[in-house]
Amino acid sequence: MTKAFLLAVAVTAAGWAHAADPTPEAKKAENVVGWVSDGHCGAKHMKTGGAACVRKCIAGAEHVNPEWKPGGMVFVTEDKQSWKVDNPDALWGHESEQLEVLATRDAERKSIKVEKIVEIRQQ
Known about the structure:
Blueprint: H1 2-20, E1 30-38, H2 51-59, E2 73-77, E3 82-85, E4 98-106, E5 111-122
Parallel strand pairs: 3-5
Antiparallel strand pairs: 1-2, 1-4, 2-3, 4-5
């Protein structure tokens, strides 16, 4: 009988703990304005005209110099914060452009997932 009682208490306590734990809210997409750049140069490409350089730095150029590792695509916001782009295909072809995008930010990973381009601000 005591085993059954202890089991009932444990199940009830686990249920209360689960009910008290709030479920994390789903991250909401928001409009973000910034520049498409690479992980090496970041905010240095907050201007038009550097698309070829950005593409090279995103992909890397280890065949030219072993130290030129791929930098990955980043989105640099107007306050010069760099966010790794989780889905770079969404912004491919817009390197070194200022865009407004609808995206979900992951502050913990310092990354964004772009849902769509809302507006091209500067090409």
